[in-house]
Amino acid sequence: MGRAGSAVATRGTRQAAFPGYERLDAQVPVFYAPRLAGKARELSDHLTLGYRTLGRVLSVEPPEIVAYLVAGEDWADAPRDNARPYPPGLPYFTRSVEPPALVLPEELSTVFRPRTAATLPLTVWHELAHAFLLGREVVRTPAWLGEFVPQAASAAVARRVDLPLQEHLSQIEGEPGYTVRGFRGPAGDQMSFQNLLLVLGVAALDEFGVDFLRRIFHALWEEDEIVDEERAEELLGEALGPGGREWLVSRPEFQEEQL
Question: In which element (H, E) is residue 53 found?
Fold first, then answer.
């Protein structure tokens, strides 16, 4: 649930300081509380798979990033863009440190649902996709586009590594009563919004294949003005390919009216 769609903040120069934390070297180094060594290895495996796969799918040089696996008692001291700590259990990507970092909690918040074997890796790859996208300047976009891109990217990784994605999708609750463009609900409904975007992202991969992800990433990097609703629809439709915009507006998850 990391942030996307806003203008990229100026990179910070400070490094996160967690006394006693250890480092697990990998393509994405993981800093972790010693008691979380086992979890750090699990996260490192997910990060490595996602990092390599996204680099190939997007045909880009992966960004230089690190990850912090933060113990619950240290959450308030985690690096962040805002003055206040993020809600406990919600991972995010931040450029407030150098290198930029994924900040991952020792346990995901209970708002993440459904809880399956795919929940944690999908969440990690979602945040990785934010890191890839925000490795370059990105202008503000509507929330649905800013979150659709990492949801579709995480689904693409899941398919490449044979994660049981269909089992996860089968446990998503039914229609939430709004579309991705009509979502105006409270923060507590954010997971339903994300799940709706995941369903739309999987449908797009089924219909158009994985190459549209490379095109939408590059299209967003090339935009130099704030993207409004109409332009967001146009960008994604063009990235999908021939018939993309027509397909997009036909999807029940995307239509403007209530489901």
Answer: helix 37-58
Reading the block at residue 210, the tokens are: 């994985």
- Whether the CB-CB separation of 173 and 198 falls below 8 Å is answered with no
Residue 199's domain spans which residues?
143-250
Q: Is residue 196 in some structural domain?
A: yes
Is 198 part of any domain?
Answer: yes
CA distance 65 to 15: 12
Is residue 169 domain-resident?
Answer: yes
Q: How far apart are CA 259 and CA 251, in angstroms?
A: 11
Compute mean pLDDT per 10 residues along the chain, 259 residues long, and list them. 42 67 96 97 98 96 96 94 90 95 96 95 98 96 96 97 94 83 72 94 98 98 96 98 97 74
Please check whether residue 192 lies inside any domain of the structure.
yes
Tell me how many domains the chain contains.
1
Helix (H), strand (E), coil (C) string for 176-243: CCCCCCCCCCCHHHHHHHHHHHHHHHHHHHHHHCCHHHHHHHHHHHHCCCCCCHHHHHHHHHHHHCCC
pTM (two decimals): 0.92
Reading the block at residue 255, the tokens are 């239509």
Q: How far apart are the first and last CA of the chain?
A: 24
Residue 177, pLDDT score: 77
Q: Which two tokens stand for residue 256?
A: 């403007």
